[in-house]
Structure formats: structure tokens, C-alpha cells
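Hello,

Our lab assistant flagged a job as stuck in the queue for most of the afternoon. It eventually completed. Since we weren't sure the result was trustworthy after the delay, we are filing this so someone can double-check. Below is the sequence as submitted and the structure that was eventually returned. Let us know if re-running is recommended.
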Amino acid sequence: MKRRDFLRATAGATAFSIAGRATAFAQTWPSRPVKFIVSFAAGGATDLVARPWADALTKAFGQQFIIENRGGASGMIGNEAAFRATPDGHTFLFTGNTGTVGLPILRKASFDARQFLPVAHTGNAVSGFTIHPSVGAKTFAEMLDYARKNPGKLNFGSSGAGTQPHLRYEMLKFKTGVDIAHIPYRGGADSLNDLLAGNIQLMNEASTLPHVKAGKLIMLCVNAPTRFADLPDVPTLTECGVKDADMASWFGLYAPPGTPKEIIATLNAKAREIGSTPEWKQRMAQVANIPVNLTVEEMQKLWDEDWNATAEVIKTAGIKLE
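-- returned structure --
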């Protein structure tokens, strides 16, 4: 056999062997507990969506899926931990598009978030500007009127600088010119506690929804193209007269670079199976989340489109992190 033919044959055999091992590995996965790193504190919007998913996947695979909350730096600490994790299919990042779109555009990091591997789209968040009843504003227009007559007296709490709620706040200021202060927190749970206590007056996160339904808070609008079925009387931001400022929020599961594609395909298929059931849609509605069952390729396309759109918004509004 000629040397060239020998090398080709050897290369082919090696590739076949690697593919075979990867397939076999995927078939035995998961072989131990699987960790979802949530880069915000427990009780926030991301955490509230991640925990039901961990429970459902634990039942589906017969192996425990656990949540590890790593808050700080608006989510960047947890994101980096997931990025640098061993890519063996036992550690994933569960985050909103804050972690893989907003922050990577606004803040320099020691890793390239675009190298994360999309695994599963875990739903679109339902959120909107929500206000404490003590302010006295019951509509979006009344809130703007109050803000203009009382500059600097309204405080908006977010889950951190550069997060999607922060970007929505910046867009509100850019589009309306209101003087509202931004108070960044370590996570949505902390800002929600202060909102319920009346220490701040505004938020825009999915975690407020249960308290809106309980009558403790007032949702003035929703950041979505259409109204939310559970709150049919709450108008969209566009209906309130503020166009092109929605800044949609969605959740996804990501793998560290180098994670076997067979494992990703297996997890994506199971997530889509779970997400398509009526029971799951009802379960997600309780945490203000709408299931969207995308393939890995469709999720990658969504990610790319959101990246470009968010970058344009940040540029147009002149949003910067101090």
C-alpha cells in the first residue's frame, strides 16, 4: 500500500473510532448527576424557570439534574464557570439572553460567550414594567406622568448592570426621556424583595408575575408583540405608545465548547418532547414562561438574530456600563 493511501485509511479508521466512542458515550449519558449553573441568585426569574426543568429532566433520564446558583457580576461569574467546565455533558449553563447576548456585547470578559454551544430553548419570558401600588399609578401613561412631575423619585430595580431588565430601563429612558434612577442588584430575587417592600418602585422581570396576580403589584405593560393570555387587560409596550423597545427576554440551555454533539442532540430532543406537552405549558405559565420548542439549529439562528438586534439597540440608545 502506498504511503498516501495508508494515511488516508488510517485517518478514516481514526475518525470512525472517535465517532463510535462519541456515540457510545452519548448512549450511556448521563452517568452521574448533571449540573445546571444558574448565574443569578435563587428565587430570580432564571432560577424559577430552571428548577422545573431540572426536575423534569431528572424524571426523564433517571439521573439527578441539580441547580447551582452562582450569582455576581450581573451573571458573568456563573457564565465563566460554565464556560470553563469540563465538556463531558455533565455541566451546562442555564441562562436568559442576558448572559449570552446583552452582557457579552456590553462588557469585556476573559472568555468568548459566542463559543458556547446552544442546547435547548427553554422558553420566552413574560415581563413588563411593574410598579408598586404606593406610587398611585395604575397605567403606563400615569407612571410616565408621575415620573415627569417627580423627576428622580422613581427607582427601577434590575437583576444587574447589563442585564435584559437594565436594557429595558435604558430603552424606556431613551424613548420617553423620563428621569428614573437605576438600582442594580445581584439578582432579580433581591430587587423583587425591595419592590414588594416599597423600597424601589419599578421592575421589569418575569418574577413579578405571581405578585401581580395576587394584587400586590401592578403590571403596566408587557414586553411582547402580543398580550399575555393570563393578563389579557395588560397592554403591550407598543400599545402604550412606545414602539421598537420591547427587548425580548428568553431562556436557553448552553454547553461548554467541546461538548459532544450527540449529547447535545439527546438533551435537545428530550427538552422539545417535554416542552410540547399541555401540562408543561401550564407549568411554565406559573413562572411567566412560554415554551418554544426549537432545534439546535433554530436556537442558533435565534441567538444570532438577537445578538444583532441587541447590538443595534445598544448602539442607537448609547447604552454603556459605568
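-- support follow-up --
The delay was a queue issue, not a problem with the job. The result is valid. Residues 14-22 have pLDDT under 50 and may be disordered. The chain has eleven helices and eleven strands.
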